[in-house]
Amino acid sequence: MDKIHILHVIGGGEFGGAEQHILNLVTSLPKDEVETTVVCFYDSLFASELRKAGVPVIALNRFGRFDLRLLQALRGVFRSFGPHLIHTHGVKANFFSRLAARGSQARLLTTVHSYLRYDYAHPLAYAIVSFMERSTRRWNRHYIAISGAIAELLQQNGVPQNDISIIYNGTDLTPYRQTHLREADRTRLRKEWGVPEDAFLFGTVARFVPVKGLPLLVEAFAGLLREYDGPAPHLVMVGDGPERPILEEKVRELGLQEKVSFGGFRQDIPACLHACDAFVHSSLYEGLGYTIIEAMASEVPVVASHVGGVKEFVNDHQTGLAVQPGDPAGLTKAMKEMLDRPELRESLTQNALALVEQTFTIQHMTKETMRLYRQLLS
């Protein structure tokens, strides 16, 4: 075999953790060993970013959400490219790719980025996607779990341990390590958000969806303001999504308009993190926690929900402050401790940075993924 031909398949209608993972991976694979093309179901921001990076993209955006013509289109792509491996991401890509690849010589593997029960909160939606996943699972050769927590869930759902590899997502740490830009980023964004230069700023970066627990964060911040007798801190929430109106209403109800800012959807996340004094993660579940890793790389101390894959790298009072999920009082207590103890913030920051630089690099992720590709084809 001269080169390994790989097709990555994903919905790609948004630009979240799975999309960033693919972009990081396909731009880092050794070009002398691998030829990669990404198939997206939508021609949106993600497809555009892939093209900017010089990655070949096929966008199948002429079909509806669950249009069966998508199956025929994928079959045509698979026949045309004749890939050795089809690497899928997300339940829709998994379902249609597994059906479309039947009869081909390609071997299928899936990266599992999250827990379906939290991605699809409505019981009917969860029942449908669970059926889609389980009914096609027998045609999938192997699974990559982005954390030990996800691997455990797969085993609980009947996937044999030998069919699972744990490979942590890798992050390009370079933009977060640009410390020479920190003061300029801090000044510019605080002015934009209406936050005083000398105020202690808590920040979060998330999709505004129920699993992220953001109403709990607003409630916890209100509790902090009631309890804290020093200079009032501020909170910025960067991101967007269906829960934004709920969050804005909650901020108004609690009278927090002067202390809470909404940053909106942004692509300059390193700059946003540089503007913050601490990062708060309030998710009810998290497969891994990209934004926590990015905050750690930015030398921003972290308060995080003790859930899922987060448990594997946020060690309480060592690399961050860990809080039980769904506990606003616990979040308030941890945020107050962050405010009160600058020496703790410094030790958390240094420990977390060392961990991230050792464990969550793109180079490590790429090396482990290539090793698995070769193993599957041997």
TrEMBL record:
Top-level division of the source organism's lineage: Bacteria
SUPFAM superfamilies: UDP-Glycosyltransferase/glycogen phosphorylase
Keywords: Glycosyltransferase, Transferase
Domain spans labelled Glycosyl transferase family: 185-352
One term of GO molecular function: glycosyltransferase activity
Domain Glycosyltransferase subfamily 4-like N-terminal, first and last residues per copy: 15-173
Broad class of enzyme this protein falls into: transferase
Pfam families in UniProt: Glyco_transf_4, Glycos_transf_1
EC number: 2.4.-.-
Protein name: Glycosyltransferase
Organism: Brevibacillus ruminantium
Taxon lineage: Bacteria, Bacillati, Bacillota, Bacilli, Bacillales
